[in-house]
């Protein structure tokens, strides 16, 4: 970085817009140097692409370091939707050490949970689960035994349900794309299956989602050891905002990293347009 700052002196006589472009390039290089320690996106809380297993740990790729500790039998499979996947034996799960998730990373004003799933049979299965210290079951993204899918958020106790959507057609032994989204600002929750809106509900209450995961957070098994996930899971991503339908479909079709790359490219193009307009 010091080398880059010294180089700035040699371009100080260039036109203003060229200096600005140079500064953007310096910032880009500086960001790349430290990318490994920075979150991929300010709203992306968890991202498991299941490409990297280390011993009894699955490496989490959001840049926040919330790796999953394997409990039971969670193995890497070559049959993923994008490269590798995780295969969950029934009653096995990833423990995310919920009490140690940073307060700023807990979704309260919005939430989206997105994943590719390939379940072994049609029964109640939790994709992800977290429970607050006051006992609130704050989120339920599920494949259901009654033949549909579920998406739910709750505010702080006493169990203030913000929405509870059930829709779609639960199918076993095939890849299904699940996406539940909620925005408090828009007061709307939507459940997408394979990129299609299969159910939506206006918020019943104007309350934040319960604001801690102090009783735990897991992938693949409820905190009370119910609704075990059995089958394959790929590209699980959890956000602290409500994704749009366009964003859900972009992630479904291209994956999280490609989606974020396009998003970054769009932001850079906007910045470039503003610079050109200011010439």
Q: How many helices does DSSP assign?
A: 4
Task: State Rg.
Answer: 21 Å
Count of structural domains = 2
Identify the overall geometry: globular
Name the poorly predicted regions. Answer: 1-14, 17-36, 268-277
Please identify the top-level CATH class of the largest domain.
Answer: Mainly Beta
Helix-strand category: alpha+beta
Distance between the termini: 27 Å
Keywords, separated by commas or semicolons:
Jelly Rolls; 4 helices; alpha+beta; 20% helix; 279 residues; eight-stranded antiparallel sheet; ten-stranded antiparallel sheet; 18 strands; 2 domains
Structure in a nutshell:
Helices cover 20% and strands 34% of the residues. With 279 residues, the chain is an alpha+beta fold.
What does this molecule look like?
This protein is an alpha+beta fold and 279 residues long. It has two domains: 38 residues, no CATH class; 218 residues, Jelly Rolls (Sandwich). The protein has four helices and 18 strands. Strands 2, 3, 4, 7, 9, 10, 11, 12, 13 and 17 form a ten-stranded antiparallel beta sheet that branches. Strands 1, 5, 6, 8, 14, 15, 16 and 18 form an eight-stranded antiparallel beta sheet that branches. Strand 10 and strand 11 form a beta hairpin. Helix 3 crosses helix 4. The longest helix has 22 residues. It is globular, with a radius of gyration of 21 Å. The N terminus and C terminus are likely disordered.
């Amino acid at each position: 970085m010091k080398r880059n700052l010294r180089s700035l002196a040699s371009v100080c006589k260039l036109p203003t817009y060229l200096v600005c472009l140079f500064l953007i390039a310096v910032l880009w290089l500086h960001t790349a140097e430290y990318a490994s320690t920075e979150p991929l996106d300010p709203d992306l809380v968890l991202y498991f692409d299941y490409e990297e297993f280390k011993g009894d740990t699955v490496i989490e790729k959001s840049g926040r370091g919330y790796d999953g500790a394997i409990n039971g039998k969670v193995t890497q499979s070559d049959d993923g939707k994008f490269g590798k996947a995780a295969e969950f034996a029934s009653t096995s799960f990833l423990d995310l050490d919920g009490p140690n998730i940073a307060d700023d990373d807990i979704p309260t004003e919005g939430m989206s949970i997105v994943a590719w799933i390939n379940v072994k049979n049609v029964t109640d299965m939790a994709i992800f689960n977290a429970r607050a210290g006051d006992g609130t079951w704050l989120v339920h993204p599920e494949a259901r035994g009654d033949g549909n899918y579920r998406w739910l958020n709750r505010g702080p106790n006493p169990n203030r349900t913000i929405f509870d959507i059930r829709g779609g057609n639960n199918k076993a032994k095939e890849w299904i794309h699940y996406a539940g989204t909620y925005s408090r600002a828009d007061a709307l929750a939507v459940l997408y299956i394979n990129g299609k809106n299969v159910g939506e509900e206006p918020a019943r209450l104007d309350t934040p989602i319960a604001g801690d995961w102090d009783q735990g957070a897991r992938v693949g098994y409820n905190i009370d050891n119910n609704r075990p996930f059995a089958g394959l899971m790929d590209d699980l991503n959890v956000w602290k905002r409500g994704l749009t339908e366009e964003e859900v479909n972009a992630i479904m079709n291209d994956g999280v990293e490609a989606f974020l790359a396009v998003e970054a490219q769009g932001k850079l193009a906007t910045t470039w347009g503003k610079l050109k307009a200011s010439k």
